[in-house]
Structure formats: structure tokens, C-alpha cells
Amino acid sequence: MRIPLLIIPLGTAEKLTYGLRGVFGRVLIIYPGLKYDLLQAEMKISAESYLAATFLSAFLWGFFMFGSIFAAKFLVSGAGFAASAEAAAPGAGLGLLLYLYYIFYPKVYAGKMAQSVDKDLVFALRDLLLQVSVGIPLYNAMVNISKSEYGGVSDEFAQTVREVRVGVPMEVALQHMALRSNSEFLKKSVWQLMNGWKAGASLKGILQSLVNDLTINKRYLIKSYGQELNMWVLVYMLFAVVAPTIGTTLLVVLSAMTGSAVTNFTFGMLIGGSVMVQIVLISFVKSRRPVVAA
Predict the structure, then answer these.
(1) I want to staple 107 with a disulfide (CB 3.0 to 4.6 A). Which of 37, 97, 219, 283 is the partner?
(2) Based on the number of CB atoms within 10 Å of its own CB, is 240 exposed (0-12), middle (13-18) or buried (19 or more)?
(3) Of all residues in the chain, what percent carry a pLDDT higher than 90?
């Protein structure tokens, strides 16, 4: 896979950063969950190599920013030391932001994979319930689910079916599915299904209970999101309408009292800041929206 803005591709990161693995193996103590995040995101790379690749990429981006600003400042003013001092902060800031972005990307990507699973899980379980109800064995029902169009759920079942075909016991294959998935709903469903299958309980009753629980949970998430959305609408209106209006009025009053002129740059900064806050709020509210299949 390709991580946005990562200069060193994951496919070649192991070879390119082999000599740095020892150093970043010690740094890995700071990020104890990175190995698990990479596993959940199905990124086939060691945590040491990933740290090294992300650090080098962030450093190169920061150096590029530093060089660009330094060249522009130097051509205008000709003062090398002053230009380097002004370019250092943006370069270091960009490098740090990208490094943090790289570190959290596997966790975020794994979360998106879990959302793709949660989106179709209820429908897949209903299909599984229907097949088990008419007497189809669990393994054959899982094969049918793996061949259906249930997104990430079908992919998970397909991997489990492949393990069973090569000789892995059904119980162990289901355990692997529960452990590798980042979806809490799928984990719960698989563990209950596996325990019921081991105990010889009615799979129909277990599946019916899982479908009912997941349906109730989806409704609760949608209701909670609707209530939460009312608050975020007020916050958005505050930054989109109230803050720019009051801020502009205060600037005009203060400029009249102090005798300083309000420049177009000041108004531009005020408008630009308001737009940036709105973009962040919209992105945050969108990320909070529960994933429900259309």
C-alpha cells in the first residue's frame, strides 16, 4: 500500500532502512502500540523500519520547506543568517507535523478498515443466520459470505475460509479472525459464534441475538450522533458567523482608539483563520458520523 506524502515506499523501506533498525528499535519503546497498529492495518513491515522510513521522509519534507523559504528570503534580502533563522521554524514544524501524521496513520487506517467491516456486518450476519436456519453447515455458509459483496466482512471471511482449507481447525481460524480484526463488533460476534459452536449450542439463536444487538446499537449511535450534531452546529455558527463579525468590529474600534490602521492583511488573516476553523470542524463532525450502509 502507499501512504500519502511518504517519500520512502513501504515496499522498499525494509531494505533502505536496514542499517537504522537498531537505532529505531530503541526509539520503539516510546510507541509500544505501533506494532499492533501496523498489524491491524495489514501493513507488512516491521515497526523499526516503519519508524525509520517515516523519520527520513519527515526530515526530507522539512528540509525541502527550509530550503524553499531560505532561497526565497535570501534572494529578497540577501541576509543568509536571518533567512536561515526565519526558515528554520517552518521547516521544523512541517517535519514534526508529518512525522506525527505518519505515526498515527496506521491506527487511523485500521479504524477505517474497521468502519468498512461494521458497515456491512449486520447484513452479513443476517445472511449467515438465514443460511444456518435452512440447514446449511457453518463452513459452507461462511464460504457463501466470503463470495458475497459485503465489503470488508467478505474479505475477513474469505481469509478465514482459506485458513480452514489448508488444514487450520475452524476454532483456530475463527480466533485468528477475531484477533486480526480492528472491528469491536466483529470481534464480539466471532467470539460468541465460536463459543457457541464449541459448546454445541444453537447457532441460529446466537446469530439472531447478535443481529438484534447490532441493530439496536446502530440505532443508538445514530440517535446519539443527531443529539451531538446540534451542539456542533452551534459551534460552527460561532466560528463561521459570530467570531468574524465581532472580530471585525473589535478591530475597527481598536484601530480608531489607538490610531493604527487595519490593513487588508489583517482582514485576510481573520477570514483565513475562520475558514480553517470551519474546515477542521466539518472534518471532525464528518469523522464522528456513524458508518451505516446505504
Answers:
(1) 37
(2) middle
(3) 3
